[in-house]
Design brief:
By secondary structure, the chain is α/β, with parallel strands linked by helices. The protein has ten helices and 14 strands. The chain has a seven-stranded parallel beta sheet with strand order 3-2-1-4-5-6-11, sandwiched between helices. β5, α5 and β6 form a beta-alpha-beta unit. The chain is globular.
């Protein structure tokens, strides 16, 4: 299958591109390289270095049979400070992409959505039926795209899947996280273990959890790639499916710190900060629907193993 991967020079997009190539697909990566890395695009994929708003000529030339859409701005804090950039890229850019797909007669898409669309959950684990009440512009922009996909499925016979997940970690195909401005817990803790940072800030130790720190859902990037490949052929024209992805249990911030110390053999000094506004005590997604529909299940559920994959990649 000819597949276009937007954001394929980023962390998740590059791993999924590698998985597609391993499965025998023909892949073109569309990435403006604003946050991605050209050398992260796997050998065998073709790179078109243009923004989403200029995707039409690329789709007209490639004529893909499907699109996997990862390209987006994704920092929660920045989305509150520069919301115009998030609406422009995540919503405006996606609209341009969908119109380019229509013009190229490509109507199959898997969208990298987020469990941030749910906002403050009423129950954990969070099912797909939970109310969507995002608490930041990032989550709101992703939810807007989910709504766009529903309308395009109804009006234009798109076959669409939105995959909602929280924290992605680990490494696969020799590819891992390498953000210029890192905000994710596991790579930050690994930077401390490697001596690149003096300490790790833990925001709050008085939550109603077993050790007082927040509990979050972590999914291995390899498991995430598996889900995207399973989702690609799943929907029928006119159908928009929404699936949550998660490990089903969740790990606390303290458990992550302990796992990093165990894997690396290095101390990870911790500074306890104040709670961050809007941080729920526990966020874990239920993956029952995709398990039942597509037979997906995470293979990497051990936190230590997820951390080890990320650490070993750093050592290469």
């Amino acid at each position: 299958m000819r597949v276009l991967v937007t954001g394929g020079a980023g962390y998740i997009g590059s791993v999924v591109t590698a998985a597609l190539l391993a499965g025998g697909h023909e892949v073109t990566v569309l990435d403006d390289l604003s946050t991605g890395h050209e050398d992260a695009v796997p050998d065998g994929a073709t790179l078109a270095s243009v923004p989403l708003q200029e995707s039409a000529p690329v789709l007209a030339d490639v004529r893909p049979e499907a699109v996997l859409h990862f390209a987006a701005k994704s920092l929660v804090g920045a989305s509150q400070q520069q919301p115009h950039e998030y609406w422009d890229t995540n919503v405006g850019g996606t609209l341009a992409l969908l119109e380019a797909m229509r013009a190229a007669d490509c109507r199959r898409i898997v969208f990298s959505s987020t469990a941030a669309t749910y906002g403050e959950p009423e129950a954990v684990p969070i099912p797909e039926s939970a109310p969507t009440r995002p608490t930041n512009t990032y989550g709101a922009s992703k939810l807007a795209v989910d709504h766009m996909l529903t309308s395009y499925a109804v009006a234009y016979d798109f076959a669409a899947v939105s995959l909602r997940y929280f924290n992605v970690a680990g490494a696969a195909f020799g590819l891992g996280e390498r953000h210029t401005t890192e905000t994710h817990l596991i790579p930050l803790a690994l930077q401390v273990a490697a001596g690149e940072r003096k300490s790790l800030t833990v925001y709050g130790q008085d939550y109603p959890t077993p050790d007082g720190t927040c509990i979050r859902d972590y999914i291995h990037v390899g498991d995430l790639a598996d889900a995207h490949l399973l989702a690609l052929p799943a929907p029928e024209p006119g159908e928009h499916r929404i699936y949550n992805l998660g490990n089903g249990t969740g790990f606390s911030v303290q458990e992550v710190v302990d796992a990093v110390r165990e894997v690396t053999g290095h101390p990870v000094p911790v500074v306890v900060g104040e709670r961050r506004a809007g941080d729920p005590a526990q966020l874990v997604a239920s993956s029952d629907r995709i398990r039942a529909d597509l037979g997906w299940a995470p293979r990497h559920t051990d936190l230590t193993g997820i951390v080890r994959d990320a650490w070993e990649l750093r050592a290469r």
